[in-house]
Amino acid sequence: MVRTYQRKRDKPPPDLATLQRAVASIVKDGSSIRAAAENFGLKKSTVNDALRRYRTELDAQPDILETDKSPAKVLPSERRGFWQVFTREQEKQLTEYLKAASLMNHGLTGLSTQAADHGEVIQDSEPEGPAPGTSGTAPITPESVRPHPRIDPTKRNPSNGRKRGKTRILTDTPEKEQLEKEKHNREAKKAKKKTPQKKITKTKKMVGRRQTKVGNKRKPSAFIRLSVSETSSSEPELPDDICDDESDMSLDLGEDDVVASDRPVSPIQIGKFVLVKFELGKSKSSCVYYVGLVESIDNDVADVKFLRKICPKFVFPEIEDKATVDKKDIVLVLPDPSSSSGTARSIAGHVFSRDLSAFNIK
């Protein structure tokens, strides 16, 4: 230390009596170190050091200060975060008791001995109350009189939650057949949803010719068309004058009969509009029809210039579409078309008075 050291202040160090009174107030009255330091005008560090020296000397000489015989108040430990549970006298008694208990319970470990002693201490510390008698009454709660309402499992909404499962052997024959049946029903339902339900009506059929009487002779006139629905189970009633003795007509007509009955009596001539059939495949549904103008005829073939359908009219395309077809592929000879007035585009379109909705015309 430097010989010329000068103290910053001339305050003398605290006397021993003041420190003893401060420590006694902490030990006896249970005041904190901060309160004792403020009351006696000392620094907290000075009081803390004096308290530590006192506790160290107390282990060697317990009667440094005269204190009451009553147990001291529980104080916080010197280390932060830990509180002193027992006083020093209680700790000594507990240590002696544990030693005696360990000798009495020879063969037990220290933890087992402490657990047994802890149970005995808790049992001894519980107050002994009067034993319950038969005359006592137990408290009645609302739950004991009327329990909480519970919904009936049979009244639950089946749409809520998933389907309740059950335990079953899937390899068993009845279960396997049931699973296959359920799968088949689901697939059938899906297929039914995907397939549009349409009420299909067959094309109008030519079932006969009306006989008109001219003088003493009968002359064939226009055809009579009847719409036959697939869903109808009863056969349509025909007029009495449709069929005569010379014709053997039947209502059970197929697609070939429809096409055959549509063939007109008038012959194929140059300059007439005709309906030509083209077979794209073996099935009957793969047939398409085109409207064309006959330009030349050579024996059983004819040169036809085709039109394009732009509903409800037919027009000649800018690039001519010509082909040579057999007469047997010509289904109908159409009547002369009518032309409408207006723009040049509307005049170029041809409209036929005959209904061609029964044919797949391109």
List the helices and strands and how they pair.
Blueprint: H1 16-29, H2 33-40, H3 44-60, H4 88-104, H5 110-125, H6 142-145, H7 173-194, E1 205-214, E2 217-226, H8 255-261, E3 273-279, E4 287-298, E5 301-306, E6 308-310, E7 313-315, E8 322-326, E9 330-333, H9 344-347
Q: Which terms summarize this structure?
A:
alpha+beta, 9 helices, 30% helix
Helical proportion, percent range: 25-40%
What is the structural class? alpha+beta
Helical segment count: 9
Overall shape: elongated
Average pLDDT, rounded to a whole number, is: 71
Taking the alpha carbons of the first and last residues, their distance comes to 122 Å
Largest sheet data: 5 strands, antiparallel
* Helix-strand topology string: HHHHHHHEEHEEEEEEEH
Low-confidence stretches: 64-81, 199-214, 219-262
Strand fraction equals 15-25%
Biased composition (Basic residues): 186-217
Protein name: HTH psq-type domain-containing protein
Region (Disordered): 122-217
Biased composition (Basic and acidic residues): 145-155, 173-185
